[in-house]
Task: inverse folding
């Protein structure tokens, strides 16, 4: 009998069980080579096959056209906070950023090292509980690019599509770390998409990049060789020794996504899981959701109890019930239920049943 619990962690997050079982075998011996994936050279024939297959699978999953490069880097999405302006933004030039949560703010903080930053939309005034409304978006006159964080993991908000009205001549950049490939995406609307793998794609320690090739040719300043996007794209993610296990595991996850029906199926299952929890939240008055209804994330559901003391009891008791990783981020506190692609619908149902029982048990004390 499996002793696995429902893993609500925001990342590293749960992976498909079939992928984990395949990885168990391939860690010991992959392709009958007598060597496990962790031991193979990143320049050897076995890894040649893996890296080319992973790229091809990624292109198939995301319907990525040939004029886009697909590659991977180390350093997580956090390194991309400075690498984007370093590679694209010249001194005296402006980039527009949406300020919608911690990770967006981390990116904004790096921009002045390279050029000018214009905040074109913000939800800071309301503790990042929403995506900026169309009427509140004000682009600068001539931005090089416009960057947004497509899903805000900590606060539980998500863009339902792309920002509208991008100025002519600018290209769109997205930090898609926490909702990459959770739904269909039109890659042609973007100049660059980057995503840390540890939520929907694979393990921590590797970042997927999808970049329009002409955008990669921008070169506004001299840079260290390791910081140049062109080097990593041309070397197929092997400019230096990559996270070989991460590349392998992303490929296995891409196979799983395709076997499950692709991004359309992912979108349907993610909507169904989130609906179970949101429908309950909207039907009661014990728990307080953080995100506004029109901005709610399908990946990360944030809420809290009437008191911090009850929050602590909730997560402690939930953990004992096999509902792991529900403690909210230190910024928002409360609870956060992260339900990425691989998270099963049974976990959403189990969470709601626990929430009902906990609320029933503590309702009187909360009103006292």
Result:
């Amino acid at each position: 009998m499996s002793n696995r619990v429902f893993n609500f962690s925001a990342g590293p997050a749960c992976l498909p069980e079939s992928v984990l079982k395949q990885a168990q075998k391939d860690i010991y011996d992959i392709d009958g080579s007598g060597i496990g994936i962790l031991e193979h050279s990143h320049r050897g024939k076995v890894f040649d096959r893996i890296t080319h297959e992973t790229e091809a699978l990624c292109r198939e999953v995301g319907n990525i056209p040939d004029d886009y490069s697909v590659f991977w880097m180390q350093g997580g999405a956090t390194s991309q906070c400075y690498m984007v302006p370093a590679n694209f933004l010249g001194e005296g030039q402006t980039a527009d950023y949406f300020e919608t949560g911690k990770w967006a703010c981390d990116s904004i903080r790096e921009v002045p090292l390279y050029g000018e930053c214009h905040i074109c939309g913000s939800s800071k005034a309301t503790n990042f509980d929403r995506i900026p409304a169309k009427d509140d978006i004000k682009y600068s006159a001539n931005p090089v690019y416009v960057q947004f964080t497509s899903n805000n993991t900590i606060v539980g908000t998500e863009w339902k599509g792309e920002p509208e009205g991008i100025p002519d001549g600018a290209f769109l950049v997205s930090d898609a770390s926490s909702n990459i490939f959770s739904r269909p995406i039109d890659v042609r609307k973007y100049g660059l998409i980057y995503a840390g793998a540890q939520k929907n794609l694979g393990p921590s320690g590797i970042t997927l990049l999808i970049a329009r090739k002409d955008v990669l040719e921008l070169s506004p300043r001299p840079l260290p060789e390791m910081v140049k996007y062109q080097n990593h794209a041309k070397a197929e993610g092997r400019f230096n020794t990559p996270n070989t296990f991460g590349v392998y595991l992303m490929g296995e996850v891409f196979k799983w996504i395709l076997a499950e029906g692709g991004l359309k199926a992912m979108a349907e299952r993610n909507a169904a899981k989130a609906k179970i929890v949101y429908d309950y939240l909207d039907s009661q008055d014990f728990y307080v959701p953080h995100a506004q209804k029109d901005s709610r994330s399908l990946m990360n559901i944030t809420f809290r109890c009437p008191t911090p003391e009850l929050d602590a009891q909730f997560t402690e008791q939930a953990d004992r019930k096999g509902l792991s990783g529900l403690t909210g981020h230190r910024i928002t506190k409360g609870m956060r239920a992260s339900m990425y692609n691989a998270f099963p619908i049974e976990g959403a149902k189990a969470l709601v049943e626990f929430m009902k029982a906990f609320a029933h048990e503590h309702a009187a004390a909360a009103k006292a």
